[in-house]
Design goal:
8 strands; alpha/beta; 8-stranded mixed β-sheet; 294 residues
């Protein structure tokens, strides 16, 4: 009886916190006020990575970017890289990172540092204790979209649709990280495809999905040719789509990981820039003939 009562109280508390976050969720757009201060402060202490657009066409804003996680390096470095070229973007992140202190600490210690990064217990404890208190600032700066599990996942997609509606890109790291992170992913989960499918179904727009390879050694993010869910669904299952995005990120790493044939996007070109020619064959060779759906 006592255990059931405690469980009910815990569920009620989490429901209140969840509803509070839903009310205060806002799409993170251009820097203003405290966000502008945070962006400048980050650039002082951490040099932003460079965005390398490998296509001739400028980057679209109503888009999804999928990238390798690359341990703890990928998400934050990619966020600062997009901020550098004034490209508004929000990032999927586990909902616990936006929770209270206990939830943040537990996630960082048990899941992120121990399970995914394979830190020792003392190192994980120290890292979680130092990082959990300041993460709300990171959460605000990065513009994170909480990724819920179970039935609450619909809220994640609602936030994603809201961001895309306001021409704010969404970056997702769909790597299957049950056994930790690798520099290059071996398998992708389907969440980013479900977001693209939902946007196509509810808004009637087939948005671009860009493969991204982040190279930590060179601090560069290489963005490949975009693919479109509506087009791919004519000839591929979603599992095959995931495999294709993994293959294209590996191709980006193979071709550009040595730093050749690159053209970084300048800060004065917020919509993208002109870079090297395409990394892999176009969508037409995957599904032919096809036509983009809008």
């Amino acid at each position: 009886q006592g255990a059931r009562l405690r469980a009910d109280v815990l569920r009620q508390r989490r429901r209140i916190e969840y509803n509070h976050y839903m009310r205060r969720f806002k799409v993170r757009k251009e820097d203003r006020g405290f966000n502008k201060f945070l962006t400048k402060a980050v650039r002082i202490f951490k040099r932003p990575a460079d965005i390398v657009n490998t296509e001739d066409a400028p980057l679209e804003h109503k888009a999804i970017f999928v990238s390798n996680h690359c341990g703890a390096k990928g998400p934050f470095n990619l966020t600062t890289a997009f901020r550098k070229i004034d490209h508004n973007i929000m990032t999927w992140s586990s909902w616990e990172t936006g929770g209270n202190f206990r939830e943040r600490w537990s996630y960082f210690y048990r899941i992120f540092y121990r399970k995914k990064l394979h830190y020792s217990r003392p190192r994980a404890w120290i890292s979680a204790t130092l990082f959990a208190p300041i993460y709300p600032v990171v959460f605000r700066y990065a513009g994170l979209i909480p990724v819920y599990r179970g039935t609450k996942i619909k809220t994640t997609y609602e936030y994603t649709m809201q961001a895309l509606d306001e021409d704010v890109s969404v970056i997702i790291f769909p790597e299957n990280s049950e056994n930790g992170y690798d520099e290059l992913p071996a398998e992708f989960r389907r969440g980013f495809l479900l977001a693209a499918r939902l946007y196509l179904k509810t808004r009637g727009t087939d948005i671009p999905i860009y493969p991204v390879y982040y190279c930590p050694g060179r601090k560069k993010a290489y963005i490949g040719e975009p693919l479109y869910y509506g087009e791919l669904s004519d000839c591929m299952t979603e599992n095959e789509m995931c495999e294709e995005f993994v293959r294209r990120i590996h191709a980006l790493a193979e071709r550009y990981g040595n730093g050749m044939n690159e053209a970084p996007v300048a800060e004065s070109e917020p919509d993208g820039a002109y870079g090297a020619r395409t990394v892999t064959e176009g969508t037409e060779s995957l599904c032919s003939p096809i036509g983009r759906r809008t």
